Amino acid sequence: MDPNWSEDLPIYRQLRDRVVAMILEGVLGDGDALPSVRNVAAEYRLNPLTVLKGYQELVDEGLVEKKRGRGMFVTDGARRQLFKDERQRFIDKEWPKVLQTIERLGLDAVELLENAKQSGNTGGDDD
Length: 127
Fold this sequence. Notes:
The protein has helices spanning 11-24, 37-44, 48-60, 78-104, 109-119, and strands spanning 64-67, 71-74. By secondary structure, the protein is mainly α.
């Protein structure tokens, strides 16, 4: 995890987002343990309650489960659910902005897609 924190969002939210990114990137897989609250707090010089609040958001979202006395673990299917949610969020929130920019700049969407395919920048991790 990157130790630099932005002023734009609360730290607990940034911590939550970093764990989500680790799940999406495959760094953390189904059943993997999250670093302990105590370790994260010590390593990044954070209040343990801040770390716990970030982890609790993940629990509330069903991406992480608490196992009493053992820690917190990525739930089965968390990555698949995140991809589904993130794709929908992109379609609902980001794509309209991208489309407006394409139209405002007079770009051809088909040509843009062809250029992206030729340069190998299409991404596309289908889980």
